[in-house]
Amino acid sequence: MCPDTDTPSDDPAHVVTAFLRHRSDVLCLRRSDAVGTYRGQWGGVSGFAEGDPDEQVRTEICEETGLEPGETVSFVRSGRPVEFEDSDLEREWVVHPYLFDCDTREVELSEEHDAAEWVPATAILEDDREPVPKLWTAYERVAPTVRSIAADDEHGAAALSLRALEVLRDRAGLLVAERGESGADPVGERDELAELAGRLLEARPSMAVLRNRVNRAMAGATGADGDDWGAPAVLESALSTIDRALAADTETAAIAADRLGGSVATLSRSGTVLEALETGDPSRIFVAESRPAREGIDVAERLAATTDCTVTVHTDAAVAAVLAREDVDRVVVGADTVLPDGSVVNKTGTRTLAVAAAREGVPVSVVAATAKVSTSEAVNLESGDRSAVYDGDAPIDALNPTFDVTPADCVTEVVTERGVLEPAEIEAVATELRDLETWRDGGGPAARETTDRNHSVE
Q1: What is the CATH number of the domain that holds 165?
Q2: What DSSP string runs through 259-271?
Q3: What's 354-380 look like in SS3?
Q4: What does DSSP assign to residue 317?
Q5: Which of 19, 28, 370, 428 has the least CB density, counted as fewest CB within 10 Å?
Q6: What pLDDT score was predicted for residue 7?
Q7: Where is this region: Disordered (predicted)?
Q8: Cβ atoms of residues 210 and 164 within 8 Å
Q9: With bands split at pLDDT 50, 70 and 90, how would you rate the model's confidence at 227?
Q10: How many Cα atoms are found within 13 Å in the side-chain-facing hemisphere of 146?
Q11: Does 104 share its domain with 88?
């Protein structure tokens, strides 16, 4: 986090600190005896910002971890600089924080560090790991927030549900750490975390998986101690819910992969579907470009790099023609939400693809963990910026619906971590998930009993 010098200076030292995130853990590095400051303390990837911090941070990532930004590491966001003075070193620091997502946990350490650990971000606050100064403050400037989740139009529902759990985890972890100075205030913690959970539930109302996973974390916490639950219970429950969610998504992808032989058609970007396609054995993959963001292009490029099969991109308008003319064995899509009646809310274009597949007799597999099942029949469809469709000067109205609803009779199966479900079996899952919502009514212990009884539901 800080440069390797003990020499005092009148000018603030500008440094970069990058937090590398894999799934829901961040990389912490212990500074070795080879550096000049903060030896033995834990930090992120760091170094002097002698020039442009945006360029320097990528250089530091490569030098200190062996990872290449743009390949296995992708930029998420930067944050406001953290300014502070270290009186012992007689030095002022300006830290430029960054967050990057990583596809791997395999790193090669430089001589600047002698240990590396992938840990939940809240481990920075724990007593057994001394961090470099202001590390948590730097992390908070790039950590997910309710606002960043609400504004995210690049990631799927499963990924955003994990970000929501991280928001809850991080706040609970900070409240636990603050107990050491101000003492325990279970009632105040409970009110604050319940209010935060409520805002997370409203951040993306169309995404059932976000609601279900936040509800599970809160139900687990409220069920732990009855009316006396506080930040430690929320922290523990959020951490376990993250682990459970990651395991469910991985198992769902593995089950789906076993069904993906032959020629497959897909659209948009689902992390679970992408993992299934990469680990499955399709012979050819047709990818609709998925306008207006065209995230299908990114998916196609990645599949071309990570699979041995032929990858073909086509326009959204061509999906019916592709299914009619090409030998497609299966349509596979993700879901933002699966409604209790078995219909599916997903990226606009899914309905068109599924209806065309039904016309051609091509089975449609929806790949979604059970947490994506909605507890309500109500549908809240989000829309995107109209200028993404038309930004000219003519008096033309524009529509940019982000999601559509695919009828249950156009869905052949829903592939989950519990196995393959028919649309008619979804209502039973919805009933089980409704029990997790009772935490908002003070039904914590009942929610815990229900969660234990229905432990097979993610």
Answers
A1: 1.20.120
A2: T-EEEEEEES--H
A3: HHHHHHHCCCEEEECCHHHECCCCCCC
A4: G
A5: 428
A6: 44
A7: 437-458
A8: yes
A9: low
A10: 15
A11: yes
